[in-house]
Amino acid sequence: MNLHHLLQARHAAGKPVRVALIGAGKFGSMFLAQVPHTPGLEVPIIIDIDRDRAREACRTVGWDEARIAATAFTDDGVRAIAAGAMDVVVEATGNPAVGIRHARAAIAAGKHIVMVNVEADVLAGPLLAEEARKAGVVYSLAYGDQPALTAEMVDWARATGFKVVAAGKGTKYLPIYHDVTPKDVWSHYGLTAAEAQSAGMNPQMFNSFLDGTKSAIEMAAISNATGLDVPTDGLLFPPCGVDDLPHVMRPRESGGVLEKSGVVEVVSSLERDSRPVFRDLRWGVYVVLEAPNDYAADCFKQYGLKTDLSGRFAAMYKPYHLIGLELNISVLSAALRNEPTGQPRDFRGDVVAVAKRDLKAGEMLDGEGGYTVWGKLMPAAASLKAGGLPIGLAHRVKLKNNIAHGSVVSWNDVETNANDETIKVRRAMEARFATAS
Fold first, then answer.
1. Which burial class, exposed, middle or buried, applies to 44 when counting CB atoms under 10 A from its CB (0-12, 13-18, 19+)?
2. This prediction's pTM
3. Which of 52, 106, 149, 351 could be a cystine partner for 113, CB 3.0 to 4.6 Å?
4. How far apart are the first and last CA of the chain?
């Protein structure tokens, strides 16, 4: 609760926190919207494959022409990072291979890296974070996105002496969503294809949120950052509103749905018959606590917490997340405190590709949110044992074998290039953390 004071001191000293933003999409644009209103924070360089689009994004969020003219725009992230005119690099491209390359460039240049790119984080984050720690720089999850917000709640709970039973987020989910493709995604959002196109909405990206892939990626990031376990058989997505969190999100032996205490899980805003859940948590995050003693349980009741019937399980939640509008917290925490807002410490959760339909040898996989596969959350140890193909590598690779609908795609099922830099980083991460997982 001291970041604003620290930033004011930097501003008064004429030493602003300088940020290089990579990727001026929705998340990046929301961050840029806050920059003119945050004295002491500057973005001297914006990196995007479409520099004209990036300039237009600045205009859209309210930058004046003088600020835009004073900003450098480039499409070469690695070169820009090496030039060194920044304290923090924000990687917001969403491309795993590109994100890994930029993160390593930032670490090599001695710059802090805020990884909005959760896809890259889940593919190789534990290794990247370790490299950053050895280099004396911060590798951080992005505040405003659900993984960092959930990790913060878990840290709060543990630091105050509570046992964390479950933590995660809410989303809109039905089992049929796993097989949805970009062709029919808009009907589930209540939009027509024409309406979505006019709004500039990417069907594959939005489908990755609907088909369960993005939820799996975010829960893997939380697991790797907090040490919470991953459900053995993947996410359950139980329907649950905020008032019912302590009842539903507790171990089965205590009357809930969890296989055990201490796991990540996503709650659905829809009942299985498509009715809306009462007081849903679709846009928020939560943590379920267990009182360590009778006195603490009594305090839960005295101070109005929602609890289960036993009084020992209670929940805290945040109903919304503002993604890029909140990113300053990560940037300033790294630059002014030398601390991350969540960081992978272990390889506990992984996300593997699962066939959306019967796939034939010779077909090309098209990655998260596409027509061929969706991403399933698995314990890292189980993923490694099965040789599961990470969802972050299931893009533009050709199948060597037929894959049945609902089956996990393995490394042996696809043609890969062992010399590909992204694959080498992933394999190095697996080798480094295989024992720990």
1. middle
2. 0.96
3. 106
4. 34
The two structure tokens encoding residue 14? 């004429």
Cβ-Cβ contacts under 8 Å for 354 (sequence gap 6 or more): 178, 373, 374, 375, 376, 406, 407, 408, 409
Place of tokens 């630059």: 335
Classify 165 as helix, strand or coil: strand
Strand partners, 289: 164, 314
- For the chain, the structural domain boundaries read 3-144+324-337, 147-173+212-320, 349-433
Q: Helix H segments across 349-420?
A: 380-386
- Gap between the Cα atoms of 235 and 219, Å rounded: 9
Q: What is the pLDDT of residue 435?
A: 63
**Residue 383 and residue 363: Cα distance in Å, rounded?**
23
Asked whether 318 and 170 are in contact (CB, 8 A), the reply is no
Q: What is residue 89's three-state secondary structure?
A: strand
Fold of 3-144+324-337: Rossmann fold (3.40.50)
pLDDT of the residue at 195:
87
Helix (H) or strand (E) holding 352: strand 349-355
User: How sure is the predictor about 436, in pLDDT bands with cuts at 50, 70 and 90?
Assistant: low
Report the pLDDT averaged over residues 410-420: 95
Q: What is the pLDDT of residue 307?
A: 96
396 burial (CB, 10 Å; 0-12 / 13-18 / 19+) is exposed
